[in-house]
Amino acid sequence: MRYEYNTFAALYIMAFRDINSKIIIKTPDQIDGIRRACKLAGETLKAVAPFVKAGVTTLKLNDIAEQFMRDNGAIPATIGYNGYPKASCISVNDVICHGIPGSYELRDGDILNVDVTPILNGYYGDTSTMFAVGEITEHAKKLIAVTKECLRLGIEQCTPGKRIGDIGFVINQYAVKNGFSTVYEFCGHGVGLKFHEEPEICHIADANIGAVMQPGMIFTIEPMINAGKARAKIDKRDGWTARTIDGKLSAQFEHTILITQTTAEVLTDVAGEF
Description:
- The protein is of the alpha+beta class.
- The protein is built from five helices and 17 strands.
């Protein structure tokens, strides 16, 4: 079931009244294992990058990602997860998330998100990034730049004592300011010992609500920003692919974040951008 934002916000506040008691605070040994899985996730995207070009199928990119994860001792968390069939999610143009790799051949002007989650020695790392194929429009460039900045602004909120609602507040504020909309039907999430843990990290929220961030918390921030309306529609044929309802472009970036004693460590940022 999906909700309009005002109803969603009320449910969000109710859900997080006692959520801190459900969040797994990771031990130092667990953090070390998750850090290695997250590094591999970031390196997997780097391995895929040279092959993102016109004429290459999304299935080919998926196979490269899967082989890289397996060659480095990991297995892809997405395969078989609630019936999902592939080792990555690859979402092109108007696909918001959960695009299933297949026979589609990339074309000049496409934008796409590649999302990977390796399981390494029982620990999960989760990340995604945007790619552009050939020359893309100025509008697409702006969408990608704004989405990446939304992620950066969200990460800036990640300090002990702040509340997770602050993340969604700044993300949505910046997206709307730039003429875009924030997807509210999909969220970030706790990660590390399982694929999806508490807390949910909503990318549209009121400030100063939700769980209090504490050292040892690990979660993803993964804003999905649309060029048009915020809503999504799920492809009835595969039950996974989420598209914009108006056919306009969507972009997403994702990193896994560790709350430390003083700030945040971006575990999947192998390029040192954040």
